[in-house]
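Quick sanity check, COASY synthase:
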Amino acid sequence: DKVLPELIEPYELRAAKLREFLEDVKPSLCYDIVPLADPFGPSVTDPDLQCLVVSEETRRGGEAVNRKRLENGLPELALHEIQLMKDPDHSQNEEEKISSSSLRQRLLGTLLQPPRQDPALPLRPYVIGLTGGTGSGKTSIAKLLGHLGAFVIDADKLGHAVYVPGGPAYEPVVAAFGAEILNKDGTINRKVLGAKVFGNQERLKSLTDIVWPEIAQMAKERVREADAQGKAVCVLDAAVLLE
């Protein structure tokens, strides 16, 4: 349940930083850095432990440790409570204490590593894939990036365009699923088509095998259009981006 778990540094790196800090504070200190695979770790099984350092917000966890130790036939630990340092620069939506969660939130919008140079890809426009499920906010982000000057490609709109009469997927879809999917005006009735493929993986694959390559081709054409307009950044907004 951590905030932005994708941005948490690897354990080895965090342990190395902790080791460096401990050696800097007191080189003679004897310590053992142990990874925790559960909320308790060795605190409820190590008979040599005597004290547990807690904060005001983790005191209840310390009390839970002592209850567990008693169940395991071990003596209680002395709970030494420390005050957490305040973060004078925290924003309104961040924790008041110095917090790694706040630090990870501040990483949003920053470049974590230089863009990988791929000789098979042109340098411009730089294409960013923007994906997420319904309600994830990707459409809002796409609009913001568009206001900043990015060329935005809406894959959902392309998905509608491939179905229109004369569109690249129109005739193959009608041939595969029959004239009963057509409205009186000759357009494809998406609801009727959806009912045909819903819950049927084989039919759904038949449809996506027709439609997705055409959407991909249209997206590439739009990227070339962005290049012709001199756009430096192109954003592809797609719910099923990889597909």
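Posting the structure with no commentary besides this: The mean pLDDT is 92.
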